[in-house]
Amino acid sequence: MRALSVVVAVVMASAAQAQMTVDQAVESAVKNAFQVRDAKVGVQRADEIFRSAKGRLGPRLELQGSYARITQSAPITTFPDAFPSITENKQVQLVLAQSVDISGLAKNALNATRHQRDAALFGLDVQVNLLKKQVRDDYYLVLKWTEYVQVQKEEVAAAEERLAKAQIRYEEEQIPKFDVLRLETDLMQSEHTLVETESTLELAKQQFNHSLGRPIETPVVLADVEDLPDSDLPADRLTVLALRSRPEVKQQDSSIKSLRELREVETGGMKPSMQVTGSLTQTLGASTGQRESQFIAAANITLPLYDSGATKSSVAAADRDIDRAIVGFDQIQLGIALEIRSSLTRLTDLKKKISVAEVGQDLAAESLRLAQLRFDEGIGLLIDVTTAQTTLTGARAAVVGARYDYLAAYSSLQMAAANDNLI
Description:
Blueprint: H1 2-18, H2 22-32, H3 34-55, E1 60-72, E2 85-100, H4 105-171, H5 177-211, H6 235-245, H7 247-266, E3 273-284, E4 293-302, H8 310-376, H9 382-417
Antiparallel strand pairs: 1-2, 2-3, 3-4
């Protein structure tokens, strides 16, 4: 018997360890979720673009080869029967070219890709922040519907108990057949609602698994959240924290910096450019009087004079892109402040709603107890009992809903502030 107790204890401990907490769910999702994996690919792509732009600043070495076959005939008047003369020219050329960034445009282009890479990195953080909220919401949704199922099971059990008592009283001819039929109907309705609630719970579990990037049939065992986080948080401090922490702000700032660098690149249409080249040409099988090797060094400078206003228009268009990005930056900041305020307001309202729902649950439980007592003593009506039971079930569901709506609102506040620890 003692050995059996030990085994049961071990099994229960293992089951408890198998429960996934909300933090573990978030950690798993960050590693495996599809949107994060896709964002990581975007970061890798932006990094390769940066490397490509950096590589264009360095020297370029090329190896070229040419073969020419020249056939010539002597003038007809001189040697009418002469055979054509054939000359072959085989050359190998090694060319080294280096662009000199005398206008700084290449540096501007490189900086633009660097800021684009930074924007992609912050874009990854954006996806992670959004994913955390989604996972927390799905986590709380599973817990909420789990409790809804429990509430509905209790209602079914209560309906079964009332029906059993009513059948005994009917057999003793204390109540009419109609009361028994009414309770049987209530039991069927409660069982039907339970089936629908369990189906919704299963869908919530599948959605939770999808958010974690794992097969939807994976068993879901979640740890309940016992204590509700505090909602008495200063809005101004959270807003300042959010404006410093939100990756959307940093991403938009990097995009603006990139656009400003690209704007300078657009001015290149009317700026000088320079390229230095060195070429070594080797002639294979050189004929008499022909050089076998030759080295040429050159510096080419281009100074644009007129381009019909194309550069001016391109720069103006780039300026408008910057203006739009700045407008977007201001909109993001204002939106973040609104998210903080809205989340805090909702948390305050839901905290009051939880208190009201808990009081309503206590009153409904007492009303059911009194209605059942009066009915058992033969001085009450069955309709009072069934109505009180329905009211109690609704009150219990209201407490559950308000509680997990509060947790979802707190998750929205965590996302708005881009911070998991707000206290």
